[in-house]
From TrEMBL:
Upper taxonomic lineage: Bacteria, Pseudomonadati, Pseudomonadota, Alphaproteobacteria, Rhodobacterales
Cross-referenced InterPro entries: HI_0220.2 (IPR047124), Uracil-DNA_glycosylase-like (IPR005122), Uracil-DNA_glycosylase-like_sf (IPR036895)
Classification via SMART domains: UDG, UreE_C
Domain Uracil-DNA glycosylase-like: 24-180
UniProt-recorded name of the protein: Uracil-DNA glycosylase family protein
One Pfam family it belongs to: UDG
PANTHER family given in the database record: URACIL-DNA GLYCOSYLASE SUPERFAMILY PROTEIN
Length: 199
């Protein structure tokens, strides 16, 4: 895994990235929780820390994870569909760079054999991790009981989704308590780690 992450950190495959390559990935060979998101935004690219914003605070509250656990690669992998900020367009940030997932996703996933729970956030992650479900609605998928074991679809925790959350109160009332229970059980047999690898 370390060799792979070294290669990811040095990746310059995509041309024309507005701020240049800065792959933001957190992973280790022992990660048990995988957060499969979209791509870093401009502010995240500049900070170099994923989910260090209002979305991240909400996501950690949803998952019941303190920052020291959330940012511990021995426990949590953060693997967006594109690792670098792809730029912005008229409608917001551009999609994750199409080069990234084919280049890096499979080898990184293969290097994390202990992942027991994958949180799928956004349509690009959905298309990769659950291609057969990509046409189903978020409300359907977020409460679905027919997904492959160990895969959960979440709305993006962005404040921009406040309206969806208000319209779907069952998500916070019923889905999240069960999710927190599942997550709390993921590391009961693992030693503590203070390693931190964000590249
Ligand atoms: S987005 Fe992915 S493939 Fe493109 S330069 Fe960054 S790490 Fe490499």
């Amino acid at each position: 895994m370390e060799q792979l992450l070294t290669k990811v950190r040095a990746c310059t495959l995509c041309k024309g990235l507005p701020l240049g390559p800065r792959p933001l990935v957190q992973a280790s060979a022992t990660s048990r929780l995988l957060i499969a998101g979209q791509a870093p935004g401009r502010a995240t690219h500049i900070k170099g820390i994923p989910f260090d914003d209002a979305s991240g605070r909400r996501l950690r509250a949803w998952l019941g994870l303190a920052p020291d656990v959330f940012y511990d690669p021995a426990k949590v992998a953060i693997l967006p569909m594109g690792f670098c900020f792809p730029g912005s367009g008229a409608g917001g940030d551009l999609p994750p760079r199409a080069e990234c997932a084919p280049q890096w996703r499979r080898p990184l996933l293969d290097a994390m054999p202990d992942v027991a729970l994958t949180l799928v956030i956004g349509r690009y992650a959905l298309a990769w991790h659950l291609p057969a479900a990509r046409k189903r609605s978020l409300a359907d998928l977020a409460q679905a009981v027919d997904l492959p074991q160990g895969v959960v679809v979440l709305p993006h925790p962005s404040p921009r989704n406040n309206r969806w959350l208000a319209q779907n109160p069952w998500f916070e009332a019923r889905v999240l308590p069960k999710l927190r229970e599942t997550i709390a059980s993921l590391w009961v047999d693992l030693p503590q780690s203070d390693g931190r690898t964000i590249c």
